[in-house]
Amino acid sequence: MGGYAGSHDGVLNPVEGLRIASRIPCDGSTNFEEEVAFATNFSPGGWQRSFHLDAFENKYCRHVDLYFVCVVHGHDGWKHEWSADSGTEQGASRYWLNSCSTHESPDPPRYILSGWYQEAGQKAAWKQAAIKQVSAKPEIYEFSDPNGGTARLEVKRK
What we know:
Blueprint: E1 18-20, E2 33-42, E3 48-57, E4 61-65, E5 70-73, E6 77-85, E7 92-98, E8 111-118, E9 126-129, E10 132-135, E11 139-144, E12 150-157
Antiparallel strand pairs: 1-8, 2-7, 2-12, 3-6, 3-8, 4-5, 8-9, 10-11, 11-12
């Protein structure tokens, strides 16, 4: 799932989310990826809830990316990379966290894990919730909606 708009209807606020990173250090010449599994659990009740993982991209290519030429460049911004929500069947899903922002770059990428909820009614806007890490081993993140529903995500690293 990809896109350059904010998560759902709302605009991503990085302060409300948490940074997440690959454990493989960026060596500046290669771009290794760390495979992770995201296991989500949403309590019954509450409002619709969702986890999102967004990656920051500098001047991404909006049209015709051939690696050596880009027809239309976009602006710096957060790219929606992965999501899971309480309205769909849950289970573990996989994602690969890059160790460097691009090939041959010395900079690590910026990933933000965020939590979202939607008040009753499908036309209601999605709102970002404050997310917190509740455990380091196992690596677990949680948030709750104002209606009492909770959401939990466990990151299982290979």
